């Protein structure tokens, strides 16, 4: 057995992922089998199709991770898997495989909150990062603004009242025919567009809360396209993408930095799939630094779902003595804080 060697499995949405991480910080292998192409033709993730694909891929991905890390099952010190939030069928695949492995190997098991996992992507990427900090976790399923006074302790400052930020990107992108997932496509198109071309609403900006709402923006974007189509006009896609993206980024950056100031932390952390957005990274860094904050975000490969972030979070849980029982179950609606 190698002290601190943790296998992390992630299967909450449309990525089957396995990673081997040493002592929560050093990634030895990070294998991700994406189902994006399979779901793209449906315009979004089909849960039953995802579950079946996870069943098919979990063992090959696990084998590949061990091979790539140059270790065997007997070297593992612990096993971690995503408990939730996510799609129940997918969650069950990785979670059950991890529990079976932990039982068979006689090593401890860590049930990891997926949102907490996203935060640990930053721990992997920035060894110097320690709490306290304010963290914005933005992905396809969640938009959470958290105060992290110490690892393992999460105080919710705000969250979305309707759609998640990534969900807004995906739904609007699908509506204008940009395929799935929409975030990367909008990001790419936006590079050539005018961010001020269309005045989309900035919901709840300056309302004194740290909550978000993206459904009004989504409706406004859809109405804008309807109007153009009715008039027989072409949709100026780069301008549309740039303006839409800017409306989301404006609110995310303003609320996060205001929250960090209110809480009195010096560090601001960005995580989750939408943290891959180039404009969000650019503006959070520039405006955060201008206000005196240290701003952190993970490299792109650790922003979207992966097993390494789960292994890292799992390692710190196990090291703190928080072993999960083997009769634990998945929790599709699990939250932090
Ligand atoms: O964290 P993640 O892989 O899965 C969930 O936990 O939901 O996040 C996926 C989300 C999708 O909504 C995708 O469109 C979005 O992250 N995303 C982006 C970018 N890359 C991925 N959104 C905006 N800009 C990007 N570059
Ligand atoms: Zn995620």
Describe this structure in words.
With 337 residues, this protein is α/β, with parallel strands linked by helices. It has 2 domains: 5-120 and 303-319, ATPase, nucleotide binding domain (Nucleotidyltransferase, domain 5, 2-Layer Sandwich); 132-298, 2-Layer Sandwich (Nucleotidyltransferase, domain 5), CATH 3.30.420. It is 45% helix and 19% strand. The chain has 11 helices and 10 strands. The strands form 2 sheets. Strands 3-2-1-4-5 form a 5-stranded mixed sheet, with helices on both faces. The chain has a 5-stranded mixed sheet with strand order 8-7-6-9-10, sandwiched between helices. The two termini are 34 Å apart. The model has no long low-confidence stretch (mean pLDDT 96). The structure holds 5'-O-[(R)-(carboxyoxy)(hydroxy)phosphoryl]adenosine and zinc ion. Zinc ion binds next to helix 4. Residues 114, 118, 139, 272-273, 305 line the site of zinc ion.
CATH class annotation of the largest domain? Alpha Beta
* Fraction in beta strands: 15-25%
Overall mean confidence score, pLDDT? 96
The ordered H/E elements are EEEHHEHEHEEEHHHHEHEHH
CATH architecture of the largest domain: 2-Layer Sandwich
Q: Which fold name corresponds to the CATH topology of the largest domain? A: Nucleotidyltransferase, domain 5
> Rg to the nearest angstrom?
20 Å
Bound small molecules, by name, code or SMILES, are:
5'-O-[(R)-(carboxyoxy)(hydroxy)phosphoryl]adenosine, zinc ion
Helix segment tally? 11
CATH superfamily of the largest domain: ATPase, nucleotide binding domain
